[in-house]
Amino acid sequence: MSSEGIESTFVSLRKELGLTQEDIANELEVTPRTVINWENGHSEPRLSIRQVKKLCALFKRPIEQIPDDFFANKNTETLTN
Which segments constitute the HTH cro/C1-type domain (predicted)? Predict the structure, then answer.
């Protein structure tokens, strides 16, 4: 995923995979309102390492394809080891 249009990329990928906002919220242990705010650009995700790994699994993407803006602290070396 590119850093441009994170909101639209997030929505497109979620819909492509047949996931609902509630699916994402439940898996990442956030509220559905939080996911809605990410998708509308009202707030940015700041995910823990555990949440990022779950997001990668949900979106079927390697860590390198998740925008930096989604990370509270991105250290891909730590995440991939």
Answer: 13-66
Phi, psi of 42 (to 5 degrees): -80, -20
Tokens of 6: 């994170």
Q: How far apart are CA 5 and CA 76, in angstroms?
A: 22
Closest residue by Cα to residue 1 from 74, 68, 53: 68
Q: Check: CB of residue 19 under 8 Å from CB of residue 58.
A: yes
Supply the DSSP symbol for 20.
-
Q: Report all structural domains of the chain as residue ranges with CATH numbers, in order of start.
A: 6-75 (1.10.260.40)
The answer to whether the predicted template modeling score (pTM) of the entire model surpasses 0.85 is no
Q: How many residues are listed for the chain in this entry?
A: 81
Q: What ranges make up the beta strands (E) of the chain?
A: none
